[in-house]
Amino acid sequence: MYRTVVNRILLSGGGRRLLRQPDLRTVISSSRFSTTTETQTIPNRPLNPPDSSSLSSSSTSFQTPPAAGDVPRHERKNPRAEYEGEQARVLQASLRHVLRLGWSEKAMIAGAKEVGISPSIVGSFPRKEAALVEFFMDDCLQRLIDRIDSGEELQNSTPSQCIYKLVRIRLEMQAPYISKWPQALSIQAHPLNVSTSFKQRAMLVDEIWHAAGDETSDLDWYVKRTVLGGIYSTTEIYMLTDSSPEFRDTWLFWIIGERCF
């Protein structure tokens, strides 16, 4: 079923056509956040787990790097930990200026002034506005993880209900910035930023599947994440033009697409 869904996504051309046939989730690296422009390494996962007898201590033996979904949650790096001290304070304060100044260096300068730090600190961020968007993405991910770990909202939920709840919680975090979110998407799509953007979205999708109880380790591991990520991204774009009260049409759009799970 998942393979059919993926084919539908690839052939649909995106857009609102996915209202009838959606899906996506991606592979992730174990590191949480990066402001570098290095290419991200996608972990190799064997389609058929090797027999334990075939694994030897030989130097030629293949070692599969763990995906983020395989790493115990308490051992994972806090997404918000990349920036600490003054830089984190500036970025956090800058978010309060995004609605007025956009995802921009001007917003970062305003944030620095707000917390009493010299605006020259903005020069320490290699990609300026991209750092601001990526900080927001990681902050949202950590807030989502905190809610997952609390367990209260997911009690007695089926996997489908769990995914719906977490996707809605996550997208609602963007609602206050919806008028400026097209700019954020444009920044994420820049060639210098796309690898980090890909990794962040992959981590988000993996956390959602992890919370829903997914333990697959074969081809379906890739397919499920691709499918969920596709629906998530399409719903995110649909949300940009949704003028219904409290984004009711967006959640209906998701429910229709989610039937493919």
Summarize the structure in words:
Helix content is 50%, strand content 0%. With 261 residues, the protein is mostly helical. It is globular, with a radius of gyration of 19 Å.
Quick recap:
With 261 residues, the protein is an all-alpha fold. It has 10 helices and no strands.
SSE topology sketch:
Elements lengths: L1 H11 L72 H10 L3 H4 L3 H10 L14 H22 L8 H14 L8 H8 L5 H18 L7 H22 L7 H11 L3
Series of H and E elements? HHHHHHHHHH
Helix content: 40-55%
Rg calculated over all Cα atoms: 19 Å
Proportion of strand residues: under 5%
Q: Mean of the pLDDT scores?
A: 76
Biggest pleated sheet = none
Q: Helix count?
A: 10
* First-residue to last-residue Cα separation: 8 Å
The structural class is mainly alpha
The low-confidence runs, each spanning 5 or more residues with pLDDT under 50, are: 1-75
List how many beta strands DSSP finds.
0
Report the principal-axis shape: globular
Features:
10 helices; mainly alpha; globular; disordered N terminus; about 260 residues
